[in-house]
Amino acid sequence: MIKEKNPNFKGLWAKYSKYEIIENNNEFYIKPTKKSESQIYDVFDKEKEILVDFLMLGKKAYDYKDKNDVNCILMSKEKSFQTEILNFVNKYGMLGILTLGLKNNNILSAGKAIIQQSNEITELTPNDYIKPYFITNKDIQKTDFNNGITPDVLNVYGSKNPVNEGYIDFSKNEDFKLVFSNEYSEKVSEILLLAKSLYHIFYLVEKAGWTEDEAQKTAYESFAKDFVPTNLSFEFSFMEEKRFLNWDFNSLFQAIELIFAFNETNDRKELKMCKHCSKPFIAKNIKADYDTVSCRNVENVYRNRAKKKNA
Questions:
Q1: pTM for this structure?
Q2: Are 20 and 160 in contact (CB under 8 A)?
Q3: How far is residue 281 from each of residues 203, 273, 274, measured CA to CA in Å?
Q4: Which of 182, 172, 138 is nearest to 30 (CA)?
Q5: What whole-number distance in Å separates Cα of residue 175 and Cα of residue 168?
Q6: Alpha-carbon span 284 to 271, nearest angstrom
Q7: DSSP 133
């Protein structure tokens, strides 16, 4: 194993025990099953596994046969990708896309959702922003969220029984109670798109570290600068005479971004990209460049052929 000294981090996230894929108007979503049980876990207990699984999902989306499917709509309809999403979410939970791009807290109290995508900031009404994440819940679809926390809103989203009683509560504000409702859903295509985008950055950063061509290195580094993580916040916490940085993640994707950033700036990183097949893998040796012996042997054959050709 690679030996490294890590800071003491904590970062809680919540998930349900089982999820399902549902279809609505020819689009596919993922949501908790009705009888699934909730749990809270520390993402840093699973950081390497989360990152490699998410990047592997991203690679499969990145390599999709139809390059015109830029928004991952076509692949979201395929059973193989739905299974990949289910496997990931059953292990780690949904990404928390509803709160990922929010610039303001408490959508209901504020009466608007301010969201940021790249450099563009837009405002949406609570109705327009919240309802697409609850496509199977008729009560929520009929409720008017635009007038603040009214009796009708409290009926489906009260302080004691948020979103029809099913939710996970671990000291988050009202928006997070929406995300952790068992009625909450996310589009399969949106999860695939986030995974594909992060893998693309991973690919560029790794390539920039390999190439000896300065022009190519500059190009890779330039495109890699598109990686701009969402707002992060943390605080000190103390437990058993240890000091921790307790990260307050607004989404699981934000946690994955942070783990990715730490990995790519670590001189002794464990998660790498295979120099032959470009798969992410957890290296047992700091000098490892290939995920399998087969990839290493094939790459050696290519190199020997190139040497003979140039001799």
A1: 0.86
A2: no
A3: 13, 6, 7
A4: 182
A5: 12
A6: 9
A7: G
Tell me the three state secondary structure of residue 132: helix
* List of residues 6+ apart from 254 with CB closer than 8 A: 96, 100, 229, 230, 232
Task: Please give the structure tokens belonging to residue 155.
Answer: 């009926």
Cα→Cα distances 38→19, 35, 133, 167, 265, Å: 11, 10, 19, 8, 34
- Tokens of residue 91, six digits: 């292990």
Torsion angle defined by CA atoms of residues 294, 295, 299 and 302, in that order, rounded to the nearest 10 degrees: 60
| pLDDT one-digit tens code per residue, 52-98 | 999 999 999 999 999 899 999 999 999 999 999 999 999 999 999 99
Determine the residue type at 176. F
- Residues 150 and 163 sit within 8 Å (Cβ to Cβ): no
Q: Give the residue ranges of DSSP H helices in the chain.
A: 47-62, 73-76, 79-92, 97-100, 107-110, 126-130, 138-142, 151-157, 174-179, 188-210, 214-224, 252-264, 293-310
Q: What are the pLDDT digits (tens) for 299-310?
A: 777 666 666 566
CA 258 to mean position of chain CA atoms? 10
The residue type at 65:
K
Could you give the strand order of the β-sheet that contains 234-239, starting from the edge strand earlier in sequence?
Answer: 9-10, 242-247, 234-239
